[in-house]
Amino acid sequence: MTLDRPAGTVISVSRDDAHRFSKPVVSSIRLLAGIGVEGDSHAGATVQHRYAKKRNPAAPNLCQVHFMAAELFDDLVPTGYVVAPGELGENLTTRGINLMLLPLGTRLHLGAEAVVSITGMRSPCSLINGFQKGLMKQLIRTDASGTVARRGGIMGVVMTGGIVNPGDGIRVELPVGEHLPLDVV
Question: Is 173 helix (H, G, I), strand (E, B) or coil?
Fold first, then answer.
């Protein structure tokens, strides 16, 4: 099922050519099919995250594009944390879609052409506490029943390339068949 009208909006786009924690906001990004964000340090057909590359450099890159919801940044303000787009290393900051509830294989249609297939959740890493002390606890929570809730955004691979700009609409295409929850990639 694809929503004909945009379900959400791209608020901001970011990329960085080096492996730094935060990514600078830019005016637009180009997504390359099977590669990721042109000019970004995580672009590539095989894994580019440094810790995963050490384990298996030939593994497919399931983390070509990182999405974060602006609603998370809103939720953090009352807890004393102020986070701006790109500061948690995401490529796209969105509004209007509960990213964490999307099933595996959901396709996000971005702007006029680009399509990204969702591969899983990002598991927030301890570097987040170096960015803002204690922030990690806000992004990984455990409820009374022991269920862990991650709020570090989602990852995907580029199926169809294209230019993505702030203000572009996001259409959601849910996968056919059983909807599987996202796991950490």
Answer: strand
Handedness of CA 35, 172, 96, 139 (dihedral sign): negative
What residue numbers bound the domain in which 23 lies?
8-173
CATH code assigned at 141: 2.40.33.20
Q: Is the pLDDT of residue 4 over 70?
A: no
Q: What is the pTM of this model?
A: 0.94
Domain membership of residue 166 (yes or no) is yes
Question: What is the total count of domains within the chain?
Answer: 1
CA pair distance 7, 160, nearest whole angstrom: 19
Q: Are 53 and 19 within 8 A, CB to CB?
A: no
Q: What is the pLDDT of residue 16?
A: 98
**Helix then strand then coil, % of the chain, to nearest 5:** 15, 35, 50
Short-list 141, 175, 143, CA closest to 159: 175
Strand ranges (E), 33-168 = 36-37, 65-69, 92-95, 107-110, 114-121, 140-142, 148-150, 154-160, 162-164
